[in-house]
Design brief:
Rossmann fold; globular; about 160 residues; alpha/beta; about 30% helix
Length: about 160
């Protein structure tokens, strides 16, 4: 059994005159990343691998999650291939994941995240919002055998604002 936790980076700022890859989070994004990760902290996730896009907004989101979930920072692997919007690189990176990792957390970008959860999960999600988290369970022992899984949970910032 393999478990995948996908996280779309938190809301970024457009106030800075930087290239897309270098955009930081805005205040709402920082607050959402803290709220979502602190909520997840109570779920006793047994994460044993973390991949993240190397963009500033994605690394910052991952760092907030690491702090609040008390994840060992040595697990983080930055991967420029996850600076992916179509989803083809995202699929490749997941399929190449070492098999000793059973619960993988991946921080990435949209449209790739939404396309992935709608292709490999069993619940249609119109749009995974910024800082949205989707957990999918796969009945496989080897990541390269990735196929349709079961969407076991979703958590979006709006869920915590009710």
């Amino acid at each position: 059994m393999k478990n995948l936790i996908l996280v779309r980076h938190a809301k970024s700022s457009w106030e800075h005159h930087v290239i897309d890859h270098e955009r930081p989070l805005n205040e709402k994004g920082i607050n959402d990343a803290n709220s979502i990760s602190m909520y997840l902290n109570s779920n006793n996730l047994n994460i044993d691998g973390v991949f993240s896009s190397d963009s500033v907004r994605t690394k910052t989101t991952a760092n907030i999650f690491f702090e609040n979930l008390k994840i060992d920072r040595s697990m983080l692997q930055l991967n420029h291939d996850l600076y992916d919007f179509s989803g083809s690189n995202l699929i490749s990176v997941i399929k190449e994941c070492p098999n000793d990792i059973h619960t993988l957390m991946v921080f990435g970008h949209n449209h790739a995240i939404t396309a992935f959860v709608n292709t490999y999960g069993d619940i249609f999600i119109d749009n995974v919002p910024t800082c949205g988290v989707v957990q999918i369970e796969f009945d496989i022992t080897d990541w390269k055998d990735l196929n349709k899984g079961k969407t076991v949970s979703t958590l979006f910032p709006r869920d915590l604002r009710k």
